[in-house]
């Protein structure tokens, strides 16, 4: 049985892509970009191992409770998760869209990202800090529309307005751009 190595889940955010979204931060990354925004998610070790059924039930709950439009994969490195295309298909069957980050070039990991509606790709390069586009850390990173779902939302990434979100639960989670 395939299990996903999950670091964190935010059930509803508007800082990780257009519309209300559930965001999954996957545990583990082999890229180790200098200045990584999520260094605690780099370790290639088990965190919260979840089956596809467990993850989809969390997504269904978020859809019912918060009326999310989609799911964002980030991390860590999402493409290290076996079964990601199957999870993406389950999410699409719920009528939701999928956006994924990857620190790799899309052309290298297109099989792992099969079915995603949009991919934000490329390693974070600390000497090429992005100042204009939301969500992207450096200017070398690309936004690739793989379906029509978000084609009319490209302005969201270039509106010039940086988003910051603070979620208070048992612990504080700071989400979005820190500048």
Describe the overall structure:
- The chain has 179 residues and is of the alpha/beta class.
- 18% of the residues lie in helices and 28% in strands.
- The chain has a single domain (3-176), classed as Alpha-Beta Barrel (TIM Barrel), CATH 3.20.20.
- β4, α2 and β5 form a beta-alpha-beta unit.
- It is globular and about 40 Å long.
- It starts with a strand and ends with a strand.
Provide a concise account of the structure shown.
This protein has 4 helices and 9 strands; from the N terminus they run βββαβαβαββαββ. Helix 1 runs parallel beside helix 2.
What secondary-structure arrangement, pairings included, does this model have?
Layout: E1 3-13, E2 21-26, E3 48-51, H1 52-66, E4 70-75, H2 84-93, E5 97-101, H3 106-109, E6 118-121, E7 142-145, H4 154-157, E8 164-168, E9 172-176
Parallel strand pairs: 2-4, 4-5, 5-6
Antiparallel strand pairs: 1-2, 1-3, 6-7, 8-9
Helix pairs in contact: 1-2
